[in-house]
């Protein structure tokens, strides 16, 4: 399903909210303003110059003005987009990436989603200005879950996206895609900048964060991701996020 792009904004600072279905796409487009795209639920995936930027809640994707991009929602996604006129983007990053936003950004997005979008309302505009100020201090990181244009690796990664609980070993995956284990390891490092094991762990973290945000229990998430028990899942999550799943839920609960 192809979605309509938003080619007009009503003010120098403007915010909109929408729910997109699974397997929906945004065609390649660009705007003369910056965008901060924040997902309340689901995983956002944007492609810019053959690089995929993927992030779950509570972080968002930053797009500077005039950056061509396309979008794919592998799952249903509920999100908000803050549009910032290019004249207000001087102190924001000049390259696209993931902004590790603060809990205040999450709280402001949730508050604004619950209130009418009154562009002329002075209080509403002040809150949008606070959002911009917060984003100026947020850390910018590269794509959390890199993508590859290599046909075989791309097919493998797509299959893993569909089944994050897949626990096949590197050797078994290599055999499944007619490669040696050593070839797959080298290809992953070259194309992704990390081992396939790290990529799979990141995929599980992203999936877990989305499920936590939707109220799933730690035990059910552990089962969905193929873990024998909750403890093994919790240890994996803490290793990557430095907080437990329950701490993550409390910190970023809506």
TrEMBL record:
InterPro entries referenced in this protein's UniProt entry, alphabetically: AraC-bd, Homeodomain-like_sf, HTH_AraC, RmlC_Cupin_sf
Assigned keywords, A-Z: DNA-binding, Transcription, Transcription regulation
Domain HTH araC/xylS-type: 150-251
CDD domains xrefs: cupin_NimR-like_N
PANTHER family from the UniProt entry: ARAC-FAMILY REGULATORY PROTEIN (PTHR11019:SF190), HTH-TYPE TRANSCRIPTIONAL REGULATOR NIMR (PTHR11019)
Protein name, as recorded: AraC family transcriptional regulator
């Amino acid at each position: 399903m192809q979605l309509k792009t938003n080619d007009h904004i009503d003010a120098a600072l403007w915010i909109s909210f929408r729910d997109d279905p699974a397997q929906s796409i945004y065609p390649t487009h660009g705007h003369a303003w910056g965008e901060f795209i924040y997902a309340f639920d689901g995983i956002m995936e944007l492609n810019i110059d053959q690089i995929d930027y993927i992030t779950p809640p509570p972080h968002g994707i930053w797009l500077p003005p005039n950056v061509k991009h396309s979008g794919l929602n592998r799952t249903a996604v509920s999100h908000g987009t803050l549009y910032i006129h290019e004249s207000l983007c001087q102190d924001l990053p000049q390259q696209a990436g993931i902004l590790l936003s603060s809990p205040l950004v999450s709280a402001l997005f949730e508050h604004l989603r619950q209130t009418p979008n009154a562009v002329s309302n002075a209080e509403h505009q002040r809150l949008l200005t606070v959002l911009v100020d917060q984003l100026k201090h947020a850390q910018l990181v590269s794509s959390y879950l890199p993508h590859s244009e290599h046909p075989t690796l791309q097919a493998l990664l797509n299959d893993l996206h569909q089944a994050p609980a897949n626990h096949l070993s590197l050797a078994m995956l290599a055999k499944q895609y007619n490669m040696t284990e050593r070839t797959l390891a080298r290809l992953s490092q070259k194309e992704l900048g990390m081992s396939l094991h790290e990529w799979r762990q990141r995929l599980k973290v992203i999936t877990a964060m989305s499920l936590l945000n939707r109220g799933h229990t730690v035990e059910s998430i552990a089962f969905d991701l193929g873990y024998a028990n909750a403890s093994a899942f919790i240890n994996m999550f803490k290793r990557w996020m430095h907080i437990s799943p329950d701490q993550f839920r409390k910190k970023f609960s809506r």
